Amino acid sequence: MAVMSIGHTLLGLLETGPRHGYDLKRAFDERFGHDRPLHYGQVYSTMSRLLKNGLVEVEGVEPGGGPERKRYAITEAGVTDVADWLAQPEKPEPYLQSTLYTKVVLALLTHRSAADILDTQRTEHLRLMRELTRRKQDGDLADQLICDHALFHLDADLRWLELTAARLGRLAEEIGA
């Protein structure tokens, strides 16, 4: 699975207006971090890197109850960087050799039940699909789209599990197990 660019995402959020680090974290978590919220340290280390690279600037500093609160704003270079990132297509992930395939082959080579591995994985996929379907029913449109994306990938995985289960005998012969 492709990893989301946190730096570009924070820059995109800043393009809608200057914000403090904690506001950026909250906006990120609300829009993109349902499953993996950002840690504050990740926000501030990313902002430090973006500042060093000239993609953001400190618009103001306010005293607070703790450390000073910096208000970040995107620079023209930052706007250009976000635009370039958005225009680049993501590399399709073909999953040409998944961990699951490796487990199936190793099970066959070590005379364990590859069918059991596939059955266990099928059960886990179906459990997650039920959970995402419930989440999708209760979610807003953004959450529905995120869940649909995951469900389509899980469905493709399930089809692969079924096909692999049907071909286990032939695979065992070909790898000499």
Task: Spell out the blueprint of helices and strands.
Elements: H1 6-15, E1 19-20, H2 21-31, H3 40-52, E2 56-62, E3 69-74, H4 76-87, H5 99-109, H6 114-138, H7 141-166, H8 168-175
Antiparallel strand pairs: 1-3, 2-3
Helix pairs in contact: 1-2, 1-3, 1-4, 2-3, 5-6, 6-7
What does this structure look like?
This protein is mostly helical and 177 residues long. The protein has two domains: 6-87, Arc Repressor Mutant, subunit A, CATH 1.10.10.10; 99-175. Helices cover 66% and strands 8% of the residues. It is built from eight helices and three strands; from the N terminus they run H-E-H-H-E-E-H-H-H-H-H. The chain has helices at 6-15, 21-31, 40-52, 76-87, 99-109, 114-138, 141-166, 168-175; strands spanning 19-20, 56-62, 69-74. A three-stranded antiparallel sheet has the order 1-3-2. Strand 2 (56-62) and strand 3 form a beta hairpin. It comes from Streptomyces purpureus. It holds the Pfam family PadR.
